Amino acid sequence: GDMALRTCVDVVRACIRKSDVLIRYGGDEFLLVLPGIERAAFLAKLDRIRAQLHTASVPGYSRLQLSASIGGVITQPGETVEQAVSRADKLMYQAKNRKNMVVTEDNARDGALSAAGRESHSRQSILIVDDSEMNRAILAEILGSDYNILEATNGKECLAMLEQYGTGIALILLDIVMPVMDGFAVLSEMNRNHWIEDIPVIMISSEDADTVVRHAYELGVSDYVSRPFDAGVVYRRVFNTIKLYAKQRRLASLVTSQIKEKEKNTKMMISILSEVVEFRNGESGQHVLHIGTLTQRLLERLTQKTDKYDLPPETQELIVMASALHDIGKVAIDDKILNKPGRLTPEEFDLMKTHTVVGANMLDHLGRYKNEALVKTAHDICRWHHERWDGRGYPDGLAGDDIPISAQIVSMADVYDALVSKRVYKAAYSPDTAVQMILHGDCGQFNPLLLECLV
Q1: Is 265 in contact with 379 (CB distance < 8 Å)?
Q2: Cα(first)–Cα(last) distance of the chain, in Å?
């Protein structure tokens, strides 16, 4: 979500002037104020922003596609900001009905904001796809009293409406034999774009051969109705299918909420453990938060620069979470060494270095949990976050990409935050100085790709 919002802001800022003002107005709503702009330029700019957002790539999430619903107004003499925003909000409401649209007073639909318009918006929409006008009229008559009816005369028009409305369509009634693009081609495209997972399809056709019906089900249709059809049967099947998908979505939402709650509890426990370590170390929990943030930023940049490392979003999240445990082995180090204000003796430094092995061993002794992905990631980070690219780190003297990429990234984050933070044995360096020290090798050698990411 954060990355999507940042991407949106970057795209909009690239399209506007320095005199324009972009304001985050709500969770995913923005106000854009463009003083002294001509009407033609205003309309062109809004459409350019919409188009640029739709083609933008969210770093680390290449399969996400953004869309924006934009309402635009030219302020009127004597009009307050609140009044202008209210008018723009109503036009955005129209744009949201169709998705990925710009609606201004020049192209707003008459009466779309009437009570009837709002009532129709609250009803679910059914898309009827059939080249026969009579068939579309019959189905619209059966269903029109309880649903919004959208129509398409062929598969190509159907796909265009799917692009426009997305999951705003509750169900599709799809014919098989049509010009331009037939029903099977539509289903294939819906499978390719994963629309079939969210939008149920009922095939309505006079083609009732077993092979045809079987192929339709193989492509993901929820039901199949042969023509000529009974009005009551069609209505009931439509109603039941929409209800079933609604229940599935509620169930998916419930499961997602439960998973998020478990993840929150896991993060909370990790946070408590890391806070204990930092408390003994005479540091605040801010160090752990900083490490997590820096690790996330470095991962984002790394995945933009290269696909050399296998770092899907779920792996990135694990690394960020596990980074909080990087120094857990310090619980075994004497306070006098941990919080010594001066330079450590060689013997004390040797003892300090054991925290990497101690932390890894602690995680190795977690019994049934030691093979969990989070624990294995945390183990790698604990043991090897003090290794260096040239092999001159500890405890094992690993070099190059023999060091797990998770440990390499947390190592850089740890070193940077240590440099910019005040410690009992040193003052804080400025961010610029810290970056230069890392680039010059004052803190050991790092992966050249990660140095680019740091910059």
Answers
A1: no
A2: 24
CATH class of 2-117: alpha beta
Which residues in the chain are classed under CATH 3.30.70.270?
A: 2-117
Residue 285 confidence class, pLDDT cut points 50, 70, 90: low
User: How many angstroms separate the CA atoms of 416 and 296, rounded?
Assistant: 14
Q: How far, in Å, CA of 388 to CA of 405, rounded?
A: 12
The backbone torsions φ and ψ at residue 223, rounded to the nearest 5 degrees and listed phi first, read -155, 165
d(CA 320, CA 3): 15
* pLDDT of 178: 92
Compute φ and ψ for 90, nearest 5 degrees.
-65, -35
Contacts of residue 352, defined as CB under 8 A and 6 or more positions apart, other chains included, come to 333, 337, 338, 344
Integer Cα distance of 46 and 181 in angstroms:
32
Tokens of 63: 């399969």
Is residue 172 within 8 A of residue 200, CB to CB? The reply is: yes
123-252 adopts what CATH topology? Rossmann fold (3.40.50)
Distances from the Cα of 265 to the Cα of 164, 282, 294, 321, 407, angstroms: 39, 26, 22, 12, 24
More confident residue, 282 or 339: 339
What distances in angstroms separate CA 289 from CA 269, 280, 322, 411, one per listed residue?
14, 17, 12, 14
* pLDDT tens readout for residues 9-46: 999 999 999 899 999 988 889 999 999 998 888 988 99
E strands in 357-435: none
Number of helices and strands in the chain (H, E): 18, 9
Quick count: other Cβ atoms within 10 Å of Cβ 336? 8
User: What are 251-263's pLDDT values in tens digits?
Assistant: 877 887 788 777 7
CATH 1.10.3210.10 residue spans of the chain: 281-454
CA angle 297/13/452 to nearest 5° reads: 30
CATH class of 281-454: mainly alpha
- For residue 231, the model assigns a pLDDT of 86
Compute the chain's Rg from CA coordinates: 29
**Mean pLDDT, residues 82-92 taken together:** 89
pLDDT band for position 111 (cuts 50, 70, 90)? very low
